[in-house]
Amino acid sequence: MTASPQNDQSAPPPRRSAATRHAILAAARERFASDGYERATIRAIARDARIDPSMVMRYFGSKEGLLAAAVALDLRLPDLARVPRDEVGRALVGHFLGLWEENEELTAVLRVGATNEAGAERMRGIFQEQLLPVARQVCPDPEQVPARAALCAAQLLGLALTRYVLRLPPARALAREELVAWLGPTVQRYLTAPSP
Fold first, then answer.
1. Radius of gyration over alpha carbons of the chain, in Å?
2. I need a surface site. Which of 6, 38, 158, 193 has the fewest CB within 10 A?
3. CA distance 67 to 78
4. Most distant CA pair in the chain: distance in Å?
5. Which one, of 48, 91, 84, 93, lies nearest residue 66 by Cα?
6. pTM to 2 decimal places
7. CA dihedral over 38, 155, 93, 150, signed as positive or negative
8. Each residue's pLDDT expressed in tens, for the chain with a length of 196 residues
């Protein structure tokens, strides 16, 4: 008796499609953002991605693995060593505005991070791995780098929350140039001003 192809252990593993992976991650971000991590189900995410739920598990192993992949972000932060010291605040604000406006995934990740401990933990990792090294490039006192980077994050995430998640009309009405003009000096002060 021969084994059916489904039971044949020597059969090659199914191909992993970049398009399927992308569809799963997009559906997961939206579902985690709208339902929260606890209420979002693999079935609902699979339905949104128009695939079988087993495919989600095949690609990501678990709901926790899916969350980790969905909240994995490369902020592509600029090398501040190449920016004039008195322009780093404006450069960072402009960079983040570009990221938020070009990538709706960031809005979904912010929602997940604000509503779920696992998402918040992943965002803390992004802060630790990506924002702290950038702040280290320009902060005058190495011991103050974490506090100064946290103040920058508070300013930038506060903008993202009000403009892209809550969509407060006055925050939405400000032009990019206005936001850079208002927030750039604040972020600059957090990063480079003498300690108060």
1. 21
2. 6
3. 26
4. 81
5. 48
6. 0.75
7. negative
8. 444 445 545 544 444 688 999 999 989 988 887 787 888 999 999 999 999 999 999 999 999 889 888 877 788 888 888 899 999 999 999 999 998 887 777 777 787 777 778 778 878 888 888 899 999 999 999 999 999 999 999 999 999 999 988 899 999 999 999 999 999 999 999 999 998 8
HEC per residue, the chain: CCCCCCCCCCCCCCCCCHHHHHHHHHHHHHHHHHHCCCCCCHHHHHHHHCCCHHHHHHHHCCHHHHHHHHCCCCCCCCCHHHCCHHHHHHHHHHHHHHHHHHCHHHHHHHHHHHHCHHHHHHHHHHHHHHHHHHHHHHCCCHHHHHHHHHHHHHHHHHHHHHHHHCCCHHHHHCCHHHHHHHHHHHHHHHHHCCCC
CA-nearest of 57, 1, 2 to 24 is 57
Structure tokens at 35: 């339902």
Q: Please name the residues in contact with 4: beta carbons below 8 A apart, sequence gap of 6 or more.
A: none
Token code pair at residue 87 = 């322009």
Q: For tokens 């990740």, name the residue.
A: 109
